[in-house]
Amino acid sequence: MSFWNAFSITTRYAELPRSFFTYVQPTPLENTRWVIWNSKLATQFGLPEEPESNTELLSSFSGEHVPAVFSPLAMKYAGHQFGGYNPDLGDGRGLLLAEIKDKEGNSVDLHLKGAGLTPYSRSGDGRAVLRSTIREYLCSEAMAGLGIPTTRALGMMTSDTPVFREGYETGALLVRMAETHIRFGHFEHLFYSNLLSEQKLLADKVIEWHYPQCIAKDKPYAAMFDEIADKTAYMIAHWQAVGFAHGVMNTDNMSITGQTFDYGPFGFLDDYEPSYICNHSDYQGRYAFNQQPRIGLWNLSALAHSLSSLIEKSDLESSLEKYETRLGHYFSQLMRKKLGLLSKQEGDSRLFESMFELLSQNSVDYTRFMRALSYLDSQDKQTVVDLFLDREAATLWVELYLARCEKEDKSAEIRCKEMRRVNPKYILRNYLAQQAINKAKDGDYSEIKTLSMLLASPFDEHPRFESYAQLPPEWGKKMEISCSS
Ligand code: AMP
Ligand code: MG
């Protein structure tokens, strides 16, 4: 009897007509073995804490023996890439294996990235390399640790299969979990292919599976779009507040449930540089850090256009018009918590603006600055001032800030304690990911494990790992991350 029979496994997506997907079996890699298994996430689904405790786990996820309860399939979608419509997309190397329920009964997709060729592979090889798989694993878990909506990583496997990119690399597999793998691009594909009754069906299923609260609304489809817009604003507000740049905000990388999705050449800000571009193929800076809120709206407008036969124009416009206010609201809530200034007072906007100006002019490390503010109960203001070149301006700002803190109805101890719960000490700096990758290439996965542990609780102090919270070394600043994955 299969180990999987004890689980509640379905594949609701396969209820959709065959024009939405193709059944594809994974093509196994050579000598697949675990690199890391996310024990904590696994146990939320009743899966084993130790992957070695059950050999079926590896053979199921490596594609060696696909369990009968899985229905691996490649989804068809399209999308706007760097502003241009590409009808020719779909799961080119990933497969939806099945859906599994967590202990609360919520269904989650089990997806295998790097699983081999599909009808949507175009000129690709259907594979993912170890380097990019490590980056996605670490970043999705870092985002989850930070409380930012994201897909998750259940486990990662390596192999002896060579995969060619700029040179030969190692083929790897990622087991990804997500509320859904339905993207903005699913709706765009059906619209531009003039499959409007299929599109209505997809909207009905999206509402049934992900937005059941919309069913009872006067206009369920308009309510669904409004929810998608709201969740997108919420997600991007979190990116901006923590200093995360996604790098490839194409509409095929936008989840319809507002989870950060498809990690590629992402980057966390080191120095506060608003126009930071983490994707080195992004010559125009379309997806620069400070463009993300605007691109979120652009992407939602593309989705709205594709839904125009299902939802009245005025309803679509009304949700789009609300987007900026919503994002601003979420962002200012997050920044208020980060600064410990919860009450709204005159002059706050100016204080916030001057902080961002100073950070940018002085190239101050964003994460270390925020964390330093959250220690001003026990440490001298000079610890913050010393982060700046222009100490005079910094002193002035910190004095204004501390005077403003006095107007909060809270002791400095409590304020700072709360601030330390929202200002991470540990983020996934590019150089840290690179160190883990370099070791993994030699078969040493210890750094991946250390980083996973730290990033799962980024707000806690980990005295033995102080060096992971320091400024990047010279070689680790402004790293060029290969876009190939
Ligand atoms: P991404 O840049 O990873 O978001 O991928 C964009 C599109 O290219 C998606 O349709 C992917 O499935 C596809 N793709 C990316 N890499 C590969 C690959 N190595 N083989 C096949 N398809 C790929
Ligand atoms: Mg993608």
From TrEMBL:
Residues where Mg(2+) binds: 253, 262
Domain of life: Bacteria
EC number: 2.7.7.-, 2.7.7.108
Keywords on record: ATP-binding, Magnesium, Manganese, Metal-binding, Nucleotide-binding, Nucleotidyltransferase, Transferase
Cofactor(s) essential for the protein: Mg(2+); Mn(2+)
NCBIfam families per the UniProt record, alphabetical: PRK00029.1
Protein name: Protein nucleotidyltransferase YdiU
Taxonomy of the source species: Bacteria, Pseudomonadati, Pseudomonadota, Gammaproteobacteria, Vibrionales
